[in-house]
Amino acid sequence: xxxxxxxxxxxxxxxxxxxxxxxxxxxxxxxxxxxxxxxxxxxxxxxxxxxxxxxxxxxxxxxxxxxxxxxxxxxxx
Length: 77
Hints:
Helix content is about 40%, strand content about 0%. It is built from 3 helices and no strands. It has helices spanning about 10-15, 35-50, 60-70. The longest helix is centred in the middle third of the chain and has 17 residues, at about 35-50. The two termini are about 25 Å apart.
């Protein structure tokens, strides 16, 4: 889902002004897209919990996402 969203100006600057749009050449979000941490990581964690392979449980996924968001340092800093 994230790859289908418009990229942020921050990502565009990180990649020399390139513009990315979902398609054959852009299926996976760029590593410098800070939204990866708050969208992909929770989805992977939830899938691990749901499938039973996770050794930890996340009781409140929204709280977990907020905690992850606090770890992000904007590229402009």
